[in-house]
Each structure stands twice: as structure tokens, then as C-alpha cells.
Write a structure and sequence with these properties.
globular; 6-stranded antiparallel sheet; alpha+beta; 84 residues; 2 helices
Length: 84
């Protein structure tokens, strides 16, 4: 888990301005180094295996919570939103 936390902490998260009404940030797998792509894949596997399912606008997503954030993957994009 520490390698996942390190991966998360060193990313440059981009605010999803096209969905400002649902504030969250994202990282695109294609723009990561080869090592970080492997960690992205590892984290995606963890989310799928140990995450929880929630509905968002009538679609289900699998989330994984670490600290004050929940994380989910859509295609090749890792998203995170603060949990309040």
C-alpha cells in the first residue's frame, strides 16, 4: 500500500473543469512514466478487487477510499474526489 500512496502523492492532479459541478481531479495513464503506469495498473486492480460500488448519475462505479479521498478509474483515467 505504501507504493500506491507514494504514487498518489507524487502525481500532478488535474482539476476536471468540464465537470466543475462535481469537483474532482484526474491523472491520465498514457502520460505517466512506464514505472508509474505499472503502479496505475496495480492501483486499478486494488480498486476493482477491494473497492465498493456506488451509483453516480444512474451508472455504477467502483471506488476505493484512502484518507480523505475516494479513487476510481474510467478507461485510462484515475480520478479522485474529496470525501466530505
Amino acid at each position: 500500500m505504501e507504493n500506491i500512496k507514494d504514487f498518489i502523492n507524487r502525481q500532478k492532479w488535474t482539476f476536471a473543469k468540464t465537470m466543475a459541478e462535481t469537483p474532482h481531479n484526474y491523472v491520465v495513464r498514457d502520460y505517466l512514466s512506464e514505472d508509474d503506469q505499472k503502479l496505475f495498473d496495480e492501483f486499478e486492480g486494488l480498486i476493482k478487487k477491494e473497492g465498493y460500488v456506488e451509483e453516480f448519475f444512474s451508472k455504477e462505479y467502483t471506488y476505493y477510499r484512502i484518507g480523505d479521498y475516494k479513487y476510481w478509474v474510467v478507461d485510462n483515467v484515475l480520478n479522485r474526489a474529496e470525501v466530505k
